[in-house]
């Protein structure tokens, strides 16, 4: 098997791996730099860099857990529910917040192209994590809209998309994509007939 074919097969084996299926070790700083380098390869019209990553590890995980618990309480959860939210913040060995910085008034690059870049960067980041032997999953939920959580993570003009949970997978998923076949995602385009 060629090296290129092996890399493609590795990409075709990627699944999201949730925090309850992740354990130590999490990615090293050097591995995280490689993941971000992969993210920087996403198509980015005018090189606007409309995404940012913020690393949450060590004692910062405890602060994030406190924010998640407070967000749960603000959403009407009791102390048991808030504790579950806090525990979720601590579950993954490493967490990376994903932020978008979309320039709505850019004269050349419309917002939808900038969002496409953010999605491409996120995909490249997760694919790089997988190729390095880690598992990961993008998580969001109501917490991304909590004012205190947003204020803690976002700078001016930034939108919090969620968090990537990262670690060593306890098990590896296998098999084809559960999203349906290629036939659902790929079709031939034909020029519509001109009106007569």
Summarize the structure.
This protein is an alpha+beta fold.
What does this entry look like structurally?
With 196 residues, the protein is of the alpha+beta class. Strands 1, 2, 3, 4 and 5 form a five-stranded antiparallel β-sheet that branches. It starts with a helix and ends in an 11-residue tail after the last helix. The longest helix is centred in the middle third of the chain and has 21 residues, at 111-131. The model has no long low-confidence stretch (mean pLDDT 93). The protein is globular. It has seven helices and five strands; from the N terminus they run αβαβααβαβαβα.
Assembly context of the chains:
single chain
Q: Taking Cα atoms only, what radius of gyration do you get, to the nearest Å?
A: 19 Å
Low-confidence stretches: none
Would you report the number of β strands?
A: 5
Tags for this entry?
single chain; 196 residues; alpha+beta; five-stranded antiparallel sheet; 7 helices; 5 strands; 41% helix; 16% strand; globular
Describe the secondary-structure layout.
Layout (H helix, E strand, L loop, with lengths): L2 H10 L9 E2 L5 H11 L11 E6 L3 H15 L4 H13 L2 E7 L10 H21 L3 E5 L7 H7 L5 E11 L12 H4 L11
Antiparallel strand pairs: 1-5, 2-3, 3-5, 4-5
Helix pairs in contact: 2-5, 3-4
């Amino acid at each position: 098997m060629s090296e290129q074919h092996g890399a493609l097969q590795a990409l075709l084996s990627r699944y999201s791996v949730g925090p309850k299926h992740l354990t130590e070790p999490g990615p090293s700083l050097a591995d995280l730099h490689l993941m971000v380098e992969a993210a920087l390869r996403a198509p980015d019209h005018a090189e606007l860099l409309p995404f940012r990553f913020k690393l949450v590890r060590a004692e910062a995980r405890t602060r994030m857990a406190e924010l998640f618990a407070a967000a749960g309480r603000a959403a009407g959860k009791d102390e048991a529910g808030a504790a579950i939210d806090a525990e979720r913040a601590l579950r993954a060995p490493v967490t990376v917040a994903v932020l978008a910085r979309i320039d709505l008034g850019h004269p050349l690059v419309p917002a939808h192209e900038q969002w496409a870049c953010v999605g491409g960067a996120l995909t490249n980041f997760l694919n790089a994590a997988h190729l390095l032997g880690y598992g990961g999953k993008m998580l969001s939920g109501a917490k991304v809209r909590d004012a205190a959580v947003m204020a803690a993570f976002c700078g001016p003009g930034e939108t919090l998309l969620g968090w990537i949970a990262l670690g060593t997978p306890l098990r590896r998923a296998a098999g084809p994509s559960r999203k349906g076949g290629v036939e659902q995602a790929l079709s031939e385009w034909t020029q519509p007939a001109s009106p007569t």
